[in-house]
Amino acid sequence: QAQTKFTKKELQSLYRGFKSECPSGRVDEETFTLIYAQFFPQGDASAYAHFLFDAFDADGSGALCFEDFVGGLSVLLRGTVQEKLNWAFNLYDINKDGCITKEEMLEIMKSIYDMMGRCTLPALRDSAPAEHVELFFQKMDRNGDGVVTFEEFLETCQQVRRLGGFGATS
């Protein structure tokens, strides 16, 4: 409870759910993917589940324990803006080298589009993930060096937040 922003009652409820899905107390990536895929039956969630699993697996052990799971949830649901941005950056920085490349972002975008499925309306063009990446880099890559550092990511997100969202013009 001291390490999260959940109450004792919330943690007990989360633990019961975790133990019912994962009686061993640990979730490997395959099981995590199967559970996550249930939320997106219209698409293929396996690639995005892999990236999500890596983001939750803070210690890189290859398995999620309850502490990994609830720690990630606490940040996502109750964390400060800074904590959420750190978590999101970590998700996109696939090789954990401190910057996001277009290739990393394209992998993430493709996985999101695959997860959403081909039944999305209006129908998405095959070029949509790459177009999304280009827009992301136009906004985020402030010095034009082809990578987005955490500082650029943070600065842009904070500016967007002040302006009221990505739809606002700067």
From TrEMBL:
Lineage: Eukaryota, Metazoa, Chordata, Craniata, Vertebrata
InterPro entries hit by this protein: EF-hand-dom_pair, EF_Hand_1_Ca_BS, EF_hand_dom, Recoverin
UniProt name for this protein: CSEN protein
Claim: Calcium is one of the keywords in the record: yes
SMART domains: EFh
Keyword Calcium: yes
CDD domains linked: EFh
GO MF term list: calcium ion binding; DNA-binding transcription repressor activity, RNA polymerase II-specific; potassium channel regulator activity; RNA polymerase II cis-regulatory region sequence-specific DNA binding
Similarity comment: family membership: Belongs to the recoverin family.
GO terms under cellular component: nucleus; voltage-gated potassium channel complex
Occurrences of domain EF-hand (ranges): 44-79, 80-115, 128-163
Pfam families: EF-hand_5, EF-hand_7
PROSITE patterns in UniProt: EF_HAND_1 (PS00018), EF_HAND_2 (PS50222)
